[in-house]
Specification:
- The chain is α/β, with parallel strands linked by helices and 395 residues long.
- It has 3 domains: 3-214, Rossmann fold (3-Layer(aba) Sandwich), CATH 3.40.50.620; 240-317, Tyrosyl-Transfer RNA Synthetase; 326-394, Structural Genomics Hypothetical 15.5 Kd Protein In mrcA-pckA Intergenic Region, Chain A.
- It contains 17 helices and 11 strands.
- The strands form 2 sheets. It has a 6-stranded mixed beta sheet with strand order 1-6-5-2-3-4, with helices on both faces. Strands 7-11-10-8-9 form a 5-stranded mixed beta sheet, with no helix packed on it.
- The protein is globular.
Length: 395
């Protein structure tokens, strides 16, 4: 690797590296590094927030390094706040297995499967006894763990911290020891946990891993980090039209961040976009279309990206109704409501989601917003129903 290549690898889409000088020397040595990436399958799907780190893993792979993906099937059953205000729920083994399979399928949309070693924590923790746990916990103090920001905040405000939660960083750290990680990747909210791994390796006679932290991607709402629970996410497995439409909905202030973190658009071109938008010589809408195209093309290919752009222009810019919309029936019996039929047709995930959309004025019939549920039999045949920003149905 050349010096400019290393500088680019360690600067674009990177929040912090610990310790940068040491990592540079490792990269210059030409030795293939073992890159640790762990995930807890507490949710089945991956969104663009995850992709920020996965893209860096792929870039390292392209330069000859080995990704070791750890499926946290044990830590997922403990729960980890990772900056959240409440503990994640514990999961059953069956839920973990199902979530993990979906996650893996989506993970390999970004990372090269052939250059990835997949390991499950149960390989080593299934053999752990009480003596092993006590030996592991004896190496750290409660004071050290209260230095972690979210633990410290919860402790000072009197909110509970389960003892099992304090085990989470230790188990994550032990993963690094088992696989002899050279570098651990994570978001900035994982800094403490990654550093525990570095310290534990050193205690046990291993060379301490380097820590590679990526920024937390702000969601489509423009204010909070991307999260499924907040509904401000763009999922990698979503249909092309949905990905494109969501990308077009982000605030203009996020365009440059998204281009840098989740696309391959060259730095020089991004800098030019930034300058042109700053002096108002370029409409941000045009840059956002480029961004949306790049994101869709990553996961669905160039043709799907072009089709999604055409769909967006037709439906949202020219205000036309797409030709492939769902048809709902108005003759399915008295008492069947619009919210029930929208859910049955797959336009909403549940009746509760449909009712929330109604309450927020996000459902229209023939261009008129409705806020109360209606019986299907009372909707005029030939009506156009709009659900949210991107879903349509006719009767």
């Amino acid at each position: 690797m050349t010096d400019p290549d290393i500088r680019w690898l360690l600067k674009r889409g990177v929040a912090e590296t610990i310790v940068e000088d040491e990592l540079v020397k490792l990269l210059e040595s030409g030795k293939p590094l073992r890159l640790k990436q762990g995930f807890d399958p507490s949710c089945p799907d991956i969104h663009l927030g995850h992709v920020v780190g996965l893209r860096k893993l792929r870039q390292f792979q392209e330069r000859g390094h080995q990704v070791v993906l750890i499926v946290g099937d044990w830590t997922a059953q403990i729960g980890d706040p990772s900056g959240a205000s409440a503990t994640r729920p514990m999961l059953s083994s069956e839920e973990v297995q199902a979530n993990a399979q979906t996650y893996l399928n989506q993970f390999f949309k970004v990372v090269d499967r052939q250059k990835t070693e997949v390991r499950w924590q149960s390989e080593w923790f299934a053999k752990f006894g009480l003596a092993d746990v006590i030996k592991l916990t004896s190496r750290f103090t409660v004071a050290q763990f209260l230095a972690r920001e979210d633990f410290g905040q919860r402790y000072s405000s009197g909110r509970p911290i389960a003892i099992t939660e304090l085990l989470y960083p230790l188990l994550q750290a032990y993963d690094s020891v088992v696989i002899e990680a050279d570098v651990e990747f994570g978001g900035t909210d994982q800094k403490f946990n990654c550093l525990v791994g570095r310290e534990l390796q050193q205690m046990l006679g291993q060379r301490p891993q380097q820590v590679f932290l990526v920024p937390l991607l702000v969601g489509t709402d423009g204010s909070q980090k991307m999260s499924k629970s907040l509904g401000n996410y763009i999922g990698v497995d979503e249909p092309p039209n949905d990905i494109y439409g969501k990308a077009m909905s982000i605030p203009d202030s996020l365009i440059i961040d998204y281009l840098e973190l989740v696309t391959d658009v060259p730095d020089e071109e991004i800098a030019e976009f930034k300058e042109q938008m700053a002096n108002q010589s370029l409409n941000p809408m045009n840059v956002k279309k480029r961004l949306a195209h790049e994101i869709v093309a990553q996961f669905h290919g160039g043709q799907a990206a072009r089709d999604a752009e055409d769909h967006f222009s037709k439906v949202f810019q020219r205000r036309e109704v797409p030709g492939d919309i769902v048809t709902l029936s108005t003759s399915i019996g008295l008492g069947t409501t619009l919210t029930a039929e929208l859910t049955r047709a797959g336009l909403t995930k549940s009746r509760s989601e449909a009712r929330r959309l109604l309450a927020h004025g996000a459902i229209e019939i023939n261009g008129e917003t409705i806020t109360e549920d209606v019986e299907m039999a009372r909707i005029e045949k030939g009506s156009i129903i709009k659900v949210g920003k991107r879903r349509f149905a006719s009767t």
